Amino acid sequence: xxxxxxxxxxxxxxxxxxxxxxxxxxxxxxxxxxxxxxxxxxxxxxxxxxxxxxxxxxxxxxxxxxxxxxxxxxxxxxxxxxxxxxxxxxxxxxxxxxxxxxxxxxxxxxxxxxxxxxxxxxxxxxxxxxxxxxxxxxxxxxxxxxxxxxxxxxxxxxxxxxxxxxxxxxxxxxxxxxxxxxxxxxxxxxxxxxxxxxxxxxxxxxxxxxxxxxxxxxxxxxxxxxxxxxxxxxxxxxxxxxxxxxxxxxxxxxxxxxxxxxxxxxxxxxxxxxxxxxxxxxxxxxxxxxxxxxxxxxxxxxxxxxxxxxxxxxxxxxxxxxxxxxxxxxxxxxxx
Amino acid sequence: xxxxxxxxxxxxxxxxxxxxxxxxxxxxxxxxxxxxxxxxxxxxxxxxxxxxxxxxxxxxxxxxxxxxxxxxxxxxxxxxxxxxxxxxxxxxxxxxxxxxxxxxxxxxxxxxxxxxxxxxxxxxxxxxxxxxxxxxxxxxxxxxxxxxxxxxxxxxxxxxxxxxxxxxxxxxxxxxxxxxxxxxxxxxxxxxxxxxxxxxxxxxxxxxxxxxxxxxxxxxxxxxxxxxxxxxxxxxxxxxxxxxxxxxxxxxxxxxxxxxxxxxxxxxxxxxxxxxxxxxxxxxxxxxxxxxxxxxxxxxxxxxxxxxxxxxxxxxxxxxxxxxxxxxxxxxxxxxxxxxxxxxxxxxxxxxxxxxxxxxxxxxxxxxxxxxxxxxxxxxxxxxxxxxxxxxxxxxxxxxxxxxxxxxxxxxxxxxxxxxxxxxxxxxxxxxxxxxxxxxxxxxxxx
Lengths: 336, 447
Known about the structure:
A: Ubiquitin-like (UB roll); 3 domains; 17 strands; globular; B: mainly alpha
């Protein structure tokens, strides 16, 4: 029986490709953050707390891929995975997940990835530094491993008390003495200034292994701080980049397999530019109808020369683009 | 026999297309055009201020677009671009749900039909199973295979419903079909000497194609081709003639032949061995059911495809007419070179919406469920610009296409010779040539 017939009957079956998941329920954490419970397909091979998964969901019929940290306990009897996302302004996927997603929806997921995890030999003293939704990978670690960590301090920043994701759970952990929690509400307390605040809040920070996740500015500051203290190896950082590509008048096109790099102007098809650079490119009608020239756009932006419409890809995406009618709209990476 | 929209006298028409679309250019439909680069292929762009050059055909038949200026044609192009863009911008969750529903329906239908055929020793089971399997095979090839392989659903970014990954219930591997169909046929639609779909290299279907004695047999070839259409397409996609004659270099032909044989083996094993074996005592009835379902699929899809370009009223274009062709001119050629089938929802669905052949040729990557929506707009444009829009019911269009196969089997009348005389002299020539060839062979042997 053909595989795709089996996938129609049971998309979560063993052997289904790509790996699928089904949304079981959605739980609002704050006004604009939600936890999603996912039943993974049979081939899900588990994760280490702190890791993330690639999450592909159809919005308006178009598949969108994002990465989310896993926050679930490994020993859940129902085997569900959880991810938590905060709706950011203009965030297509995060807004959809928080406001419109319904149980029963099928999504596609990748196997767990990432090395933002605790070492098997658990460290004696740990500092978690998180900001906003950067709490999520750390929450995965806390839920699974807090009992194995003798000395935990956590500094978490959020705009106000109401914006703290997992607030109740965090405060309970602190109340039972399993960790020390420093909550900073930046709207009133101001931003964390490592050079000033760290010695005051965590006097023994130099002795601690640190896991940090949050906005880019915060992580940059952490890297500078720990580097200056010559303790950079103690700092583990997880970055969730939001990619905004300025669609300009052309740019550098990198072909990932051949390693060819060409400067493409914004008015000419990538196919032609690449051929002029001596590349062998798949091609057909050269006018956008036969789809023989389609290649995956892995990162960056291209513009459809017929309509002016710009297509974006975030790193790791494989948005299929027609190279014969697409021009570079800024730097981009194409798999070929 | 065919319905041809009444041409409007464009010169006196107060709704001059070029002026109307001049207003449209700045409307919400039309996004601002990207900066024009003279080096870009004119196929990709609308080009204003270009002089039209008419390319007469050898038969001297009138050019159906002679009344349009270059500006008219580019204005028409802008209107069609706007129609395409409106649909492209409104593609969404409903369209995605549609194609997934069709796929699921088709998979269940095929599975159920094949399950019923396991008991095909009982005639009612045979009948129901064969009917179901025929429909499933038709949907697989038409609404799913043809359209998905056109990239109509690539926008969903679902790797399973994508032109680069889809495979179909057909002896031709998807990749080879895409090349001959999407690339050659859709680019060179109805251009004499360039579009091989115009008679598939075995038939004469246009007054401007030269007549050969072998064309006398084309009603028979055409019928055999219809019965075994899948195999006809396969040999055509493979470029079998070039492979056999050695015109295609071996390093190119080998992977093509291998891919084709692998696909053929899979198809034959599935329908004529594995499924019958699963049926146990119903082995032969199941094998027969698969054969009959395949023939029904072949006849139906061949009919739909004949209706697309062969009925009377459809235009062909001179060999050199596409040199420097603009996007607007390309649009006009697609409209005039295609024909629709009129009818209800079922006809459209079972023909994979190729009943909207004109719209499909204008916008090959529009999701098939949307052709019905744009058809009235395209027809209105045709009418306004004084261009024909050939359409009719399936039986009528099929009869028209077949009539062409019969009519062009014979040579055209010449001023001083009747058709009979031309045929007779061709037979005589062939006889003489054959005799000379045999004589030459004998001489060669003796020497």
